């Protein structure tokens, strides 16, 4: 479904600060599965997501999504096929706009429109039904500016907006890291329910081993831009993953807290 072939990415090329992240990197993601991406800070996780989404360019390699080569597509063009939820709960929403305006923006993603014609009144009831699936009462707060929502509410709304058009691929970039443990668990459960119900192919970066083991169909661990672990659900335990980290003297991966 997603095929990455011979990917190479170097920062500050030709300078004394040159840093090679990927060198002929290869990865295939199966349709309908959730793949957990683990690794220490600097291992290439977010760089990989930025390249897939088009936020970063790469020197060599091919990225194919559902049989379509997307190398030459800009980030806004890839957004038609790729949804993304960031670590910052405010990154995927417009805090100064209302819930209704935000969800209307998401509904019109990749369309040409003016702000004056942003809201389609005939779709408000449909939006309410979609919001009800979050079980957060947001359907009764359509005219509330998003900046007044809690972090969990904003991140849940971001998740909903990122999947409204049922993207071919969903990128979850540590989307629960900024939340407290209780809220993080609720958002993760909503995430699993949504991606399984809609059968959305998902890649999820996480520093939480328990989340990766519990919610992923497959776990891929990166180290300096290379895959050092690639296992299916049930083939490895939390303790075994942490043991790998300890042997490599990592300090950024944690158990569930």
Structure write-up:
The chain has 257 residues and is an alpha/beta fold. It has two domains: 2-81 and 167-247, Rossmann fold; 89-149, no CATH class. The chain has helices at 45-53, 75-78, 99-107, 124-132, 151-163, 181-198, 209-215, 238-247; strands at residues 2-11, 19-29, 34-38, 60-65, 68-69, 82-85, 169-173, 201-205, 218-223, 226-232. The strands form two sheets. It has a six-stranded mixed sheet with strand order 6-7-8-3-9-10, sandwiched between helices. A four-stranded antiparallel sheet has the order 2-1-4-5, with no helix packed on it. Strand 4 (60-65) and strand 5 (68-69) form a beta hairpin. Helix 3 (99-107) runs parallel beside helix 5 and helix 5 (151-163) packs parallel to helix 6 (181-198). The mean pLDDT is 91.
> Rounded to an integer, what's the Rg over CA atoms?
19 Å
Q: Tell me the CATH architecture of the largest domain.
A: 3-Layer(aba) Sandwich
> What is the end-to-end distance?
34 Å
Unreliable stretches, pLDDT < 50, 5 or more residues? none
Helix content: 25-40%
- Fraction of residues in β-strands: 15-25%
Which of globular, elongated, flat, extended, rod-shaped describes the shape?
Answer: globular
Largest sheet features:
6 strands, mixed
- Taking all residues together, what is the mean pLDDT? 91
Order of helices and strands: EEEHEEHEHHHEHEHEEH
């Amino acid at each position: 479904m997603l095929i990455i072939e011979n990917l190479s990415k170097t920062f500050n090329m030709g300078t004394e600060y040159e840093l090679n992240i990927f060198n002929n990197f290869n990865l295939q993601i199966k349709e309908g599965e959730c793949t957990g991406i683990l690794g220490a800070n600097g291992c290439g996780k977010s760089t990989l997501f930025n390249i897939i989404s088009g936020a970063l360019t790469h020197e060599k390699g091919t990225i194919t999504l559902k049989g379509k080569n997307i190398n030459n597509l800009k980030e806004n063009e890839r957004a038609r096929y790729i949804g993304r939820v960031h670590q910052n709960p405010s990154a995927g929403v417009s805090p100064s706009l209302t819930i209704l305006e935000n969800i209307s923006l998401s509904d019109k993603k990749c369309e040409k429109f003016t702000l004056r014609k942003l809201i389609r009144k005939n779709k408000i009831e449909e939006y309410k039904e979609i919001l009800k699936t979050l079980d957060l009462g947001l359907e009764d707060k359509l005219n509330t500016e998003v900046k007044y929502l809690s972090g969990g509410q904003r991140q849940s709304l971001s998740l909903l907006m990122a999947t409204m058009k049922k993207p071919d691929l969903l990128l979850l970039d540590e989307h629960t890291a900024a939340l407290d443990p209780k809220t993080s668990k609720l958002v993760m459960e909503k995430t699993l329910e949504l991606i399984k119900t809609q059968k959305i192919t998902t890649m999820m970066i996480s520093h939480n081993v328990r989340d990766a083991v519990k919610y992923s169909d497959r776990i891929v661990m990166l180290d300096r831009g290379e895959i050092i672990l690639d296992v299916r659900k049930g083939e490895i335990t939390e303790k075994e993953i942490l043991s790998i980290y300890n042997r490599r003297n990592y300090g950024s991966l944690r158990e569930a807290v």
